[in-house]
Design goal:
Layout (H helix, E strand, L loop, with lengths): L1 E5 L4 H9 L4 E5 L9 H8 L4 E4 L6 H4 L3 H22 L2 E7 L22 H16 L3 E6 L2 E2 L6 H11 L3 E4 L3 E2 L2 E2 H13 L5 E4 L6 E2 H11 L7 E4 L19 H6 L7 H13 L4
Helix pairs in contact: 1-7, 2-4, 4-5, 8-10
The structure holds NADP nicotinamide-adenine-dinucleotide phosphate.
NADP nicotinamide-adenine-dinucleotide phosphate binds next to helix 1, helix 4 and strand 4.
């Protein structure tokens, strides 16, 4: 099986390439394949059996004022890859996001819940999902959220830095989600594809749930610091250009149906990830 990973220089893409180990993999960074170029996408996909699209415009706030540019990557880029996969017989795994949902629920979003994005980023990612489903029936959509890993800026690294700079750190306690280690998601993606799982939507997030405040406290605890140094606030106190979903907890039923192990509990993954993500020596 010949794999192609797009966005291979990104936080998730780097760990997908690592998870593929000694399998036959072409890893293309943005400099090597710009997914907004349809002809380049077709040429790159040719000769591969599976494409993992980890390329994306991920600047959520900037997308509010640059929706067209975000759409070019997240929707048109996905469409170019989907067309190329359909034309060459490759399967496509499209990475998507919790932001495609309204985020105002109170029980975990199922894989077939209606898409109702509230932000520009969410709209462009939802358009990417629709394009992939319409153009490439042999495809998986894997929605993830609250990612952290060694190869990009993220909340875990930010908390570790702030812990060294400040006595206290104030974090919102009214947004719930599932912190997810890119290493866990990458391994789950490989499992999903290699099990020849039914095509369709999967939620690539950890089990369990917490708030950003709870996540921050857990990070402090893992760093050997007093979690009481994290204080709570509300989303309203921190206005941002893009609205943040209050409830981003995703259900994991389709993994069970496919007979593939979903991702483990978020707190267990956090404990194991700290050395890799923030370079802990103790
Ligand atoms: N991070 C999260 O918490 C989170 C949450 C939900 C979903 N996701 C999804 O997870 C996936 C991976 O995200 P990530 O966290 O790994 O983000 P990331 O580190 O920003 O990786 C995205 C990669 O895509 C590249 N890229 C941007 N435009 C491109 C283009 N036109 N052609 C080819 N590559 C392009 C970026 O390159 P440059 O850096 O050079 O721009 C970057 O290397 C995305 O689909 C994202 O929507 C992430």
């Amino acid at each position: 099986m010949r794999w192609l990973v797009t966005g291979a220089g990104g936080m998730l893409g780097s760990d997908v390439v690592a998870a593929l180990g000694d399998r036959e993999v072409t890893a293309l960074t943005r400099a090597e394949l710009d997914v907004t170029d349809a002809a380049a996408a077709l040429a790159a996909v040719d000769g591969h059996d599976v494409v993992v699209n980890a390329a994306a415009w991920t600047a959520v706030d900037d997308a509010e004022t640059h929706e067209g540019a975000a759409f070019a990557v997240n929707a048109l880029g996905a469409a170019h890859l989907a067309r190329a996969c359909a034309a060459t017989g490759a399967r496509l795994l499209q990475v998507s996001t919790d932001y495609v949902f309204a985020g105002d629920g109170s029980s975990p979003y199922s894989e077939d819940a209606p898409l109702a994005p509230r932000s520009a980023y969410g709209r462009t990612k939802a358009a990417g999902e629709w394009a992939v489903q319409a153009l490439c029936p042999q495809s998986w959509i894997v929605r993830t959220a609250w990612l952290y890993g060694a190869h990009g800026p993220n909340f875990v690294k930010t908390m570790a830095r702030l812990a060294a700079e400040r006595d206290t750190v104030t974090v919102v306690d009214d947004q719930s989600g599932q912190p997810t280690w890119t290493v866990d998601l990458a391994a789950a993606i490989v499992r999903l594809v290699e099990a020849e799982s039914p095509f369709g939507a999967y939620h690539g997030t950890s089990a369990g749930e917490t708030t950003w405040f709870g996540f921050a406290q857990a990070i402090f605890a893992e760093l050997g610091l007093d979690p009481a140094r994290v204080t709570r606030t509300t989303t309203g106190a921190f206005p941002r250009p893009a609205p943040r979903p209050a409830y981003s907890v995703l259900g994991h039923k389709t993994w069970q149906r496919a007979g593939v192990a979903p991702i483990r509990e978020w707190s267990e993954a956090l404990a194991e990830s700290m050395t890799t993500v923030v370079g802990l020596t103790t």
